[in-house]
Amino acid sequence: MKSILSDVYTADKSAGSPVSSSAITAILRKATLRRHDSAGQFINASRPDLAQKEQREADILSAFLPPLMSEVDIDCVLNEVIAETTLDGEPRKILGRVYKAFYSKVDKSNVDTETVKRKAEALLLDTN
What's the predicted TM-score (pTM) here? Predict the structure, then answer.
């Protein structure tokens, strides 16, 4: 838990002012993911005691996090964004414009970025 406070203090110092609640949410999500990954590595290393500790910490951190945006809601916003975006040009640039428009409408700390990436790529393939 001290490492999370340290991450928040570091973010405060680098920003020069107190960080936003969405930045703190992002820090908490990263810490939760780190603990889940650590628990998996401890299980692979035959250290269930340490894995259980990491899993408990991840569960505690998860209790403080708002729920992630559902895949249905992500699809709705992506469909809106794709309808508003010009789909001409290089595919990577189109994808970049879609991401930029999506994250201007949705707080990045409230979505799973891998899900957004997967859904955006699939939707863009469907439109071509």
Answer: 0.70
